[in-house]
Design brief:
Blueprint lengths: L11 E6 L5 H9 L6 E8 L5 H9 L3 E3 L2 H4 L6 H6 L4 E4 L8 H6 L4 E5 L14 H10 L3 E8 L9 E8 L6 H24 L3
Parallel strand pairs: 1-2, 1-4, 2-3, 4-5
Antiparallel strand pairs: 5-6, 6-7
Bound molecules: glycinamide ribonucleotide (GAR).
Glycinamide ribonucleotide (GAR) binds next to helix 1 and strand 5.
Amino acid sequence: MSPPGSYICTMHTLAVFASGAGSNTQKIIDYFKDHHQIRTGLVVCNKPQAGVLQIAEQAGIPTLLVQKETFFTPPSCVDELRERGIDFIVLAGFLWKIPPVLIEAYSHRIINIHPALLPHYGGKGMYGAAVHEAVIKSGDPESGITIHYVDDQYDHGETILQVSCPIEEGETPETLATKIHQLEHYYYPRVIEECLEPV
Ligand code: GAR
């Protein structure tokens, strides 16, 4: 039932940028499926074979496959995003650097998730198993996730949330990846929600 009286409700439309399997994208789509104020309006991908494209298709979310040359040439995909009413961008395993024209158009409205405690174990090439292998090799007692605003450097920008988990005896990149994914799946949709509807 609607509350009495008149009120203004701003609907936010997300674009999720992803290059891989898309488990975080799936959780984001599911979390906002019937949300009163936030919807997933587009999945942007740079790999024609990526599993995330099937996830989007099954959920009925439009997709945009981007090519290197157009993505890195202004205006990048800014026009397509605006046409679809996108007002917030979420990176969920997107492996290209975000070009300056997109960062300017979506200033403080692009966030990323990284499977380690930045500023450590981030940067170009630090993705998936490579991150977990480096963490385990270092002997660090813990790892975790970082959710942060995006700037013009890889895995860099103001931190929004970090959550840690212990590295246990006999930990492997695979067991650590499972733990990290669990944290990501829980926290990422909730952080997106808080960024868009601060309490
Ligand atoms: C996630 O673990 C995310 O943290 C990582 O890509 C994975 C995508 O998994 N991102 C980075 O490493 C960014 N540097 P998914 O395709 O199953 O969502």
